[in-house]
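Title: Request for sanity check on Cytokinin riboside 5'-monophosphate phosphoribohydrolase prediction

Description:
We are preparing a figure and want to confirm that the structure record we downloaded matches what your pipeline produces today. Could someone re-run it with the sequence below and paste the raw structure tokens into this thread? We only need the token string, no images.
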Amino acid sequence: MRRAGPLTYRGKAIPDTTTDQRLLDRRGPADWVHTDPWRVLRIQSEFVEGFGLLADTGKAVCVFGSARIKPESPYYALGETIGSKIVKEGYSVITGGGPGMMEAANKGAQEGGGTSIGLGIELPFEQSLNPHVDVGVTFRYFFVRKTMFLKYSQAFVVLPGGFGTLDELFEAITLVQTGKVTRFPVILVGTRFWGGLVDWIRDTLLSEGVISPDDPDLIHLTDDPDEVVDIIRTAHAEIIGHRTATEQASVDEGAEAVQQAADAG
Ligand SMILES: C/C(=C\CNc1ncnc2c1ncn2[C@@H]1O[C@H](COP(=O)(O)O)[C@@H](O)[C@H]1O)CO
């Protein structure tokens, strides 16, 4: 009889080698390293690293935006100002850790004396986290990284950007729309840049009936960094107020149930 962890083998079923022998034997094909079960372990380890890094983050705002916009652009200065104002309001700033608008928001967060977080992504070309990231990790898998953005942020600020930014914007809106995350504010910054998209959402998506009448209200649009912070502050005050009211209602319900039980008994 052979025991191997929880397994028991008897007779002809007893393997020729022990688990340790097989683990320590370096011979044999290495194809299994490229199989999905092995990838699942790597994916798990990315979640563990991400949760481990961010668990103590406290309140945070995620800032999405183009990787391609240069520091000379007025949008860069706007991103920097917004990063700075967000940390002064008591939030950490989380970005994708890359260049462009991500770098601008991280730079502002650093200059504002707050926590500047970058969640980088491995790309086919060499790239490192921008120099204004104080706390960072680089992910292999986009979807693991997205989970981190969404799990650790209480608001989403979307600066001008391309496909990557649009992907992140619509992921955040979809999760809010479907009630998968708390109704956190999604704020587009740049009326000239985003105005056409917002009009299309109202004129086409709404009028064709593919979104609900309230859905356009999930998105705020502004050019003003102070308004960005005001929207976040107001939304969070409402969420906290709502939670407190819900908690009070559940305390009241509990007290009523206890009273009814006492009256009945
Ligand atoms: C294209 C260039 C660099 C790409 N590097 C990126 N690093 C980190 N995160 C990125 C990068 N590219 C896209 N992202 C993510 O998508 C958003 C920006 O995408 P867009 O298509 O540029 O709008 C951004 O929020 C990131 O999370 C050139 O140097």
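Thanks, this matches our download. The two ends are 61 Å apart (CA to CA).
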